[in-house]
């Protein structure tokens, strides 16, 4: 009887391992993990967080600014296409991060409004704003170049980053209105 | 008698070295003004507020002091996220210059990443200068705050750019020229990191429909090619646009800046 019970438990355990991969933030971060950054950020709810608070999940991230009229809504739309392309069973493992490159204007309230306007699911999407120095640092970590331009705009690179649970960037989608297939494959690969 | 001479020499050398170390942290005040960026969608000039700038680039010896206090920035300990494998490659060890130590001590530190340079400046309550600040201060020659009309001045800069830098030991700080503001070595010694070096966008990364690309490449390269002044600045922009923050380059150093606090 005991033996059968034990076999069942073992079977259950093995089976669960096969259906669901467990992601977690490693105790020792890889050297190239973006979670080595110690900067503090405000979310759209006004909460103070560090980037490593997002560890342990797969994150799909991009830099935006909410006053942006052309590229940013499109990059947000590209992220939403990635979200829509995810397998249902993976949805709970994948989070979306929008980091503002316009710390002066993008207050948490502005970010909240942007999120609501774009119907972002705030249980899985987070918008972040920080101070100018930290924005410059994260832009450099993410290889994003930006420059203030006329009429209060910002010219910037459009890059979507796939960040693994330990904080390592495993894929970058460069440009706008790119088919999400390759990025989705990069996410799938993390389950192998 | 001979002994005395030796002792005196040692004392003199020591005093000299101390003076140099403290001088190295000196800053000059740059009164602000306007600066017309070389590549900009706006034709309007950028306003540069008054600021303080290090008189000299940061030296190997100064950087050594910094890494002694800040272990995480030592060669071999710095994280891959913040520096590539070339970081301080001209040093023999974490706290050791090696056989060239005499030559290196007062030469500008190179092979440092943007993150390291930024951390150094922050450690001393300073920051990296912005591109606009650096370029504004770099307009000055020995006698004028703005030597852009002086073709001889730009020719000197171009001549320096034309010299290959590999296999050439870097000279000590204070070995080129002192400009109008009392700032040394803005040209002729090393290239320098700036806070927003990443504002120079290149075609592969910016929006393909952005007119910025055109401004970066067609505007400057073609239209102003005859203008030596712009050519020198073009070289610096091209260099900045090729950098990533973790790169450590053999002829790229830095100096720090600071806001002027009005009482």
Give a written overview of the molecule:
The complex is a heterodimer of chains A (192) and B (263). Chain A is of the alpha+beta class and 192 residues long. Chain A has a single domain (23-189), classed as Glutaredoxin, CATH 3.40.30.10. Chain A is built from five helices and nine strands, in the order αβββαβαβαββββα. In chain A, strands 2-1-5-4-3-8-9 form a seven-stranded mixed sheet, with helices on both faces. Chain A has a two-stranded antiparallel ribbon with strand order 6-7. The longest helix of chain A is centred in the N-terminal third of the chain and has 18 residues, at 2-19. Chain B has 263 residues and is mainly alpha-helical. Chain B has one domain. Chain B is built from eight helices and seven strands. In chain B, strands 1-4-7 form a three-stranded antiparallel sheet, with no helix packed on it. Chain B has a two-stranded antiparallel ribbon with strand order 2-3. Chain B has a two-stranded parallel ribbon with strand order 5-6.
């Amino acid at each position: 009887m005991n033996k059968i019970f034990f076999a069942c438990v073992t079977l259950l355990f093995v089976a669960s391992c096969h259906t669901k991969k467990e992601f977690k933030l490693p105790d020792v971060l890889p050297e190239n993990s973006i979670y080595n950054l110690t900067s503090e950020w405000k979310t759209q709810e006004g909460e103070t967080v560090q980037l490593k608070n997002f560890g342990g999940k797969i994150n799909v991230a991009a830099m935006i600014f909410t006053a942006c009229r052309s590229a940013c809504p499109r990059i947000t739309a590209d992220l939403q296409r990635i979200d829509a392309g995810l397998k249902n069973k993976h949805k709970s493992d994948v989070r979306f991060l929008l980091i503002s490159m316009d710390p002066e204007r993008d207050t948490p309230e502005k970010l909240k409004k942007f999120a609501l306007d774009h119907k972002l699911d705030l249980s899985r999407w987070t918008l972040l704003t920080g101070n100018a120095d930290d924005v410059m640092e994260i832009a450099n970590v993410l290889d994003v170049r930006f420059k203030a331009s006329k009429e209060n705009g910002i010219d910037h690179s459009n890059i979507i980053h796939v960040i693994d649970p330990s904080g390592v960037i495993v894929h970058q989608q460069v440009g706008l209105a790119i088919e999400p297939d390759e990025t989705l494959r990069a996410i799938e690969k993390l389950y192998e | 008698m001979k002994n005395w001479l030796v002792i005196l020499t040692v004392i003199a050398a020591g005093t000299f070295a101390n003076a140099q170390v403290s001088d190295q942290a000196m800053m000059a005040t740059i009164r602000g003004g306007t600066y017309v960026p070389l590549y900009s969608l706006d034709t309007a000039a950028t306003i540069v507020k008054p600021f303080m700038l290090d008189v000299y680039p940061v030296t190997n010896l100064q950087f050594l002091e910094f890494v002694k206090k800040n272990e995480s920035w030592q060669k071999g300990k710095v994280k891959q996220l913040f520096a590539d494998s070339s970081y301080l490659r001209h040093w023999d060890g974490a706290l050791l210059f090696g056989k060239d130590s005499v030559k290196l001590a007062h030469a500008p530190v190179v092979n440092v990443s943007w993150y390291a340079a930024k951390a150094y400046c922050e450690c001393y309550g300073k920051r990296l200068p912005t591109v606009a600040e650096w370029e504004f201060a770099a307009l000055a020659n020995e006698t004028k705050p703005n030597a852009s009309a002086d073709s001889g001045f730009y020719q000197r800069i171009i001549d320096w750019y034309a010299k290959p830098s590999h296999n050439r030991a870097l000279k000590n700080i204070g070995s080129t020229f002192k400009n109008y503001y009392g700032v040394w070595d803005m040209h002729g010694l090393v290239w320098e990191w700036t806070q927003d070096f990443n504002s120079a966008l290149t075609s592969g990364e910016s929006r393909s429909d952005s007119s910025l690309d055109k401004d970066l490449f067609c505007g400057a390269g073609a239209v102003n090619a005859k203008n030596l002044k712009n050519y020198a600045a073009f070289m610096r922009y091209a260099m900045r646009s090729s950098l990533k923050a973790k790169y450590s380059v053999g002829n790229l150093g830095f100096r720090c800046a600071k806001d002027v606090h009005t009482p």
